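User: My collaborator sent over this chain with a note saying "see what the structure looks like." That's all I know about it. Can you take a look?
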Amino acid sequence: MAESSPELFRVLPRQVDQTLGAALRQWLSGKSWSEVRGLVRGRRVLVNGNVCVDAGRRLRLTDVIKVLAHPAAPPPHEKDVRIRYLDAQVVVVQKPAGMTSTRHSEERHWPQRRKQLQPTLDELLPQILARKDRGKRGGKGARRPVRAVHRLDRDTSGLMVFARTLVAERHLVQQFRKHATHRRYLAIVRGVVRAQRIQTRLVRDRGDGRRGSTTLPDVGKTAVTHVRPLEDLGGYTLVECRLETGRTHQIRIHLAERGHPVCGEKVYHQPLFGPAIADPSGAPRLALHAAELGFEHPTTGEPMRFETPLPDDLREFLDRLRREGAKRSPPRS
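Assistant: Without extra context I'll predict from the sequence alone. Here is the result:
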């Protein structure tokens, strides 16, 4: 492996279901098991754009592995999780980028040691809330699980609500199912975007293992995104996306299919037929942020509304694009 640049590898059919460590030994000839494990534990291995610190992860045919010349940034810590609202029924939190919302179904039976490598938000929240409870009461705080009613992608930052009781979970789930919640996202995307309402039917596999839209009748689930440009950045656009529905990866898919992938996109930057759309933006991560969240309180019926600005990494990225765009724009006469 060249030390000055990352190495990129794609899983071969014969490597499907092999462990990441075993495949790395094949790709990185001359590396010992201890050296391979050191690369993984040292945050120098990405799987599909995400840091993987588990050498025992089983590979799929669609996985893309990158070995970095230098360690990736450390994962977010529980101190990066900000509680915005808390009562006996719900907790509203500000999720940092890089943290998974909930444990994937196939990972729920992992041993605790593996789970602790990269804890999820729903696993961290109970201990955060228990500590807050201990601080208020001066005694022991019970660690009670929270209940996820929606999700944000791993690299998306912003507002989420979790239920703390079964009653709250039922009410909130119904609100999300009926699209009665308010969700507004900010995204920085490639190209010049016009205001539009995007409606398609999304399927889990568009033909290459990725989610996408279909034109087949009565197939997939209806997805509607309202897009409004907020600022022209000279080759990029800051946009507002309001969800009418909330399908998995909906905003990312809809914008990419219109030729405007989110900066930092690593999954939907390539159309089903055609070359990948280049991303020279230098985005620090997926430039998508859940800026507003609104719902009806599950027991009082009170309208709840929360807002949060762009986090520092995206704000600095936005400022850089503004400066670069200003340099490219000709002076006005």
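A starting point for your reply to your collaborator: The chain has a mean pLDDT of 89.
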